[in-house]
Write a structure and sequence with these properties.
It is a single chain. The chain is built from two helices and 13 strands; from the N terminus they run αβββββββββββββα. The chain is mainly β. The chain has a single domain, classed as Jelly Rolls. The strands form four sheets. It has a six-stranded antiparallel sheet with strand order 1-3-4-12-7-10, with no helix packed on it. A three-stranded antiparallel sheet has the order 9-8-11, with no helix packed on it. The longest helix has 14 residues. It is globular. Pfam families: Cupin_2. This is Cupin domain-containing protein.
Length: 155
């Protein structure tokens, strides 16, 4: 490719790049809130580290969720779906009526809208995931009953 072609391509890219209406935002580590997962929605020790809330352009929130060994969510669903990316440890996820499945670092779990499920750590290992939760009509989760010890321990 000669210099004239490179210059033409660069000019075309610049001409088609839209002007940005907003500026990039940086949220420094340590500047966001963390809280214990409420007992109404979790069993065991769970810490939620908020990453970002939904906004007018992106109706998705993000959080790191850390489950101590044996900790788990209650049954719940998401009106607009959720993606989990396991970042450390070993955990389980289960859709209502389906088999409990092991999840490990690097696994990505997509839960479609309205699918009843739970997720958490195994009894012997902690587990952390990044949760990317979509919002519909101002709602991102519908909490249901707790996962019983029998359901959690079932094969």
């Amino acid at each position: 490719m000669n210099l004239r072609t490179i210059g033409f391509c660069a000019a075309a890219l610049i001409a088609t790049t839209p002007a940005l209406a907003q500026q990039m935002e940086i949220s420094p580590n340590g500047s966001r809130s963390s809280f214990e997962g409420p007992a109404d929605y979790f069993t065991g020790n769970v810490i939620v580290d908020m990453l970002f809330p939904p906004n007018a352009e992106t109706p998705t929130s993000g959080a790191y969720v850390t489950f101590a060994p044996g900790a788990r969510s209650a049954w719940h669903s998401h009106p607009a779906g959720q993606t989990l990316v396991v970042t450390s440890g070993t955990g389980w996820v289960q859709q209502e009526g389906g088999a409990k499945r092991e999840i490990r670092p690097g696994d990505v779990i997509w839960t479609p809208p309205g699918v009843k499920h739970w997720h958490g750590a195994t009894p012997t290992a902690s587990m952390q995931h990044t949760a990317l939760t979509n919002v519909r009509d101002g709602e991102n989760v519908e909490w249901m009953e707790q996962v019983t010890d029998a359901q959690y321990g079932a094969e």
